[in-house]
């Protein structure tokens, strides 16, 4: 090779830019899809809660510190017969968001009562009541209501903040 000859680098910058653009588009679409999913599962219910008159709202204690999560073991229940009349089952698992570490330990200690309340609530449902996103949001509200009831007579209500479904199979 002579000293006055120039060596050109292979051109690949255009394909790298294309890959970066494609990745950026995929990430943006993924974020938009996640936002839409959150809106359909929680946004509608949150909007309805904000529309309530302040006098009707309960004064809830704000949790201090990071949220605490308590997984509830999966279980299966028989659902009420639908119009077709056949047997249907719900296999469900969820995680509870509770008001703090002390509340988490209280709910753990009363897990038999939690599971009993859930079996009674879930076995009263029909598949058509809970197979839509709106039905699942309503079910989560009902679970929160059931689990906020005191475990002991004249006891303090539990601080159950949210129900996060981790498995939901209707068969």
What does this structure look like?
The protein has 171 residues and is α+β, with helices and mostly antiparallel strands. It has 2 domains: 14-57; 68-170, Band 7 domain (Tetrahydropterin Synthase, Chain A), CATH 3.30.479. Helices cover 47% and strands 19% of the residues. It contains 5 helices and 3 strands. The chain has helices at residues 13-51, 101-109, 111-122, 127-130, 133-148; strands spanning 68-78, 89-98, 160-170. The protein has a 3-stranded antiparallel beta sheet. α1 packs across α5 (133-148) and α3 (111-122) crosses α5 (133-148). The chain is flat. The model is unreliable at 52-60 (pLDDT under 50). One of its GO terms (cellular component) is plasma membrane. Keywords: Cell inner membrane, Cell membrane, Cell projection, Chemotaxis, Cilium, Flagellar rotation, Flagellum, Membrane, Transmembrane, Transmembrane helix. This is Flagellar protein FliL.
């Amino acid at each position: 090779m002579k000293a006055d000859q120039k060596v050109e680098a292979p051109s690949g910058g255009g394909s790298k830019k294309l890959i970066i653009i494609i990745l950026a588009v995929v990430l943006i679409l993924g974020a938009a899809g996640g936002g839409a999913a959150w809106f359909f599962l929680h946004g509608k219910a949150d909007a309805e809660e904000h529309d309530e008159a302040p006098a009707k709202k309960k004064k809830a204690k704000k949790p201090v510190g990071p949220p605490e999560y308590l997984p509830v073991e999966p279980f299966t229940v028989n659902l009420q017969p639908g119009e077709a009349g056949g047997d249907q089952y719900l296999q469900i698992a969820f995680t509870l968001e509770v008001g703090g570490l002390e509340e988490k330990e209280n709910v753990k200690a009363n897990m038999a009562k939690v599971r009993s309340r859930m079996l009674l609530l879930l076995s009263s449902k029909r598949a058509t009541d809970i197979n839509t996103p709106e039905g699942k949001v309503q079910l989560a509200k009902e679970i929160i209501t059931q689990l906020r009831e005191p475990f002991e007579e004249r006891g303090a209500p539990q601080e159950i903040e949210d129900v996060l479904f981790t498995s939901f199979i209707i068969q």
